[in-house]
Structure formats: structure tokens, C-alpha cells
């Protein structure tokens, strides 16, 4: 890719953001930054340190000394916590809820956004999250907001967890977690989940991942 661009993909949990962003990254040859993985890593550190993921004071102190590094090997993102590769350890249901909780803390978001912006300043990136187009990269050239029904998002997340070997879960529990995260993400005071005024909204409920990814790629290439 000749010119440096930034692509922001926002939306609620289970809307397909990460999977779609990875496909676009591969197709267009640009770096994919999984911002959610960064908050998951903070949650993992808190849980390991026996810090409640809703304890703002303790989290604020912890995040001052946390070292999160994002590395790329053969185009794949790996995330390290204080030198340890934790990429495979941050996708449990417990970490999902913890990530939503820690993301509410302004001190945590400021620390993560600083790192995200540093990466975006150096290379073309595609980021997905809750507030990429509104807060992290407000000047991104391309912004998209993905939605889907709660039922569809819960089913996707449930199937994803089952495929990863998590057996002690139910569809109802996953739906409850999704609804909890929706409320948490949308109601937080600092940089809440919201659609940027200039973002293109796509309802993915009845669309395949491939269809959504291709629609976004076509829009970007048409405007480049």
C-alpha cells in the first residue's frame, strides 16, 4: 500500500469486528491492531494480582507499571504482558467480562490509547473496538460501525467458545454476558461505545463474515 491510512471498525461485542478486521488486514496488506486484546491483557494482570476488575483505584496504580507489547510475526499479532506471551490466555469468558470492566477506567484507557496511537502514527492500520472512530483515531480516513441483534451476537460468541473447547457455558449465559457488556460499554463516562457521526453503519445480522469484509474493502478501494 502506497499511502498510510487508518481504518476504524467499532461496534458492540459479537458483531464480528475482530474477524472482519483480520480479513481486511490480510487482503489489503495492512497491520491489524486488536485493541480488545490489550484490555483483555490488563484484565488478565488484574485477575492474576487478585485485583477486582471494577476497583478503579487499584487498577489505576497497577496500570502505571504494566508493560504491554504488541508484536507481529508473519503478519499475526502477539501480545506480551511484562515479557510473557499471553496471546492464548486472554480469550476466556472471565477475561471477556474483566476486559469490559477495566475498559471503563479512564487511567487504563489513556494508557492503552497512547500505545494504540503510537502504532497508528508509524504505519497503516486497521483497528477494531468500541471507540476507535470517536476517540482513539477520530481522524481515521475510513470508519465503520458494525451491529447485529443480541441473539445473533450471542450465538456467534457461543459457537466461538465451543470451538475453542470451553464446554461449561450455555447460550443463555453468553447472551447475559453480551447484554452486560453492551450496557457497560455504552454507559461508561469516558469514551463510551458510540457510532462516529461519519461512520458507515452495517448490520451484520443476516450477512456472512466474507460479505461484510468484502463490502468494507470495496468501499475503501472505491474512495482511495
From TrEMBL:
Gene Ontology BP annotations: nucleobase-containing small molecule interconversion; pyrimidine nucleotide metabolic process
GO cellular component, one term: cytosol
Top EC class for this record: transferase
Catalyzed chemical reaction(s): CMP + ATP = CDP + ADP; dCMP + ATP = dCDP + ADP
Any one GO MF annotation of this record: dCMP kinase activity
InterPro entries to which the protein is assigned, alphabetical: Cytidylate_kin, Cytidylate_kinase_dom, P-loop_NTPase
Positions that bind ATP: 11-19
Primary location recorded for the protein, binned into one broad class: cytoplasm
Keyword Zinc-finger: no
Localization, UniProt: Cytoplasm
Highest taxon of the lineage: Bacteria
Family: Belongs to the cytidylate kinase family. Type 1 subfamily.
Listed name of the protein: Cytidylate kinase
Organism this protein belongs to: Pseudobacteroides cellulosolvens ATCC 35603 = DSM 2933
